[in-house]
Write a structure and sequence with these properties.
- Helix content is 67%, strand content 3%.
- It has 13 helices and two strands; from the N terminus they run H-H-H-H-H-H-H-H-H-E-E-H-H-H-H.
- A hairpin with a 3-residue loop joins strand 1 and strand 2.
- Helix 9 runs parallel beside helix 11.
- The longest helix is centred in the N-terminal third of the chain and has 48 residues.
Amino acid sequence: KKKKKKSHATDRLVSDHEEDAAVLLLSGMGLLRARLLSTVHTLRVFSLALPLTTRLVLFLSCLTYLLTFVLPHGYVELMCLQPSAIIFRFQIHRLFTFAFVHSRLVALLFNMVSFVPMAVPTESTLGSVHFCYMLYMLVGVAALVYATLAVVAQAALGVTSLLYEACSHGFSSAIFACAVAYVYKYTTTERVRLWGLVPVPGTLAPWLLLLAAQFVPGNSLLANVAGLLSGFAGVHGLLEPLQPSPTLLARADSSLRGRLPGFVPKPAAAHLPTTTTSSAPTTTTTTFLLLLLLLLL
């Protein structure tokens, strides 16, 4: 009888512990679910607060990063910026797709944290349609500059393995092009905030960003410099022939106005930065010499 009583007591004790564990598990799962829902709600509110084009860039960049865990390993190699593939296999899509591909979480976070604080005021100034076109144009120009420099280096120095066959990817080229346009055209103050936090002189912002980018794993200095060159080309009006007609922009703007959340209509007289602004660089030669010096280093 004593043994039976002890066994019953033991069973009751075990069942009580199991009930307590089940209650703790359910409460923990409930707390985790509540936190996940809160995080999702916060991200949704933050996303909806962004202008349309900025939000699309953020979404595409995060989506393509997540796809690297699902798709085969060669997915990044098919989308990256590889000069030999563009020239000999005519894979023109690489001129634009490389910017949205990220294979490292650190690079994705650095690029998006650097991009969003500059993109929001720039899109508010240009409008969503024109800002989207400007981004794609600057990305394409930066890719062409990158491929041209790689071909020249391969022909002159024989640096095939480092540049000609290299597989560059990430949004950094567009970020540096956008940084130049933002600093020299779309800011009204002499100081800007890098990553939305660190106040620095406006004219130094692209260069400090370039320095910080070198500490990001897998970052390409040549791609960053190509982005700076495309941005300065736009600032000095060299890309004006690539600008769409105002009529085309007005039609696209009117067709999308009011239909998409976060869409920013095109303000009057918004166009790619030119040297008419007082904050533009005083000389193109100095800028290009600095960039070429970086390439040689």
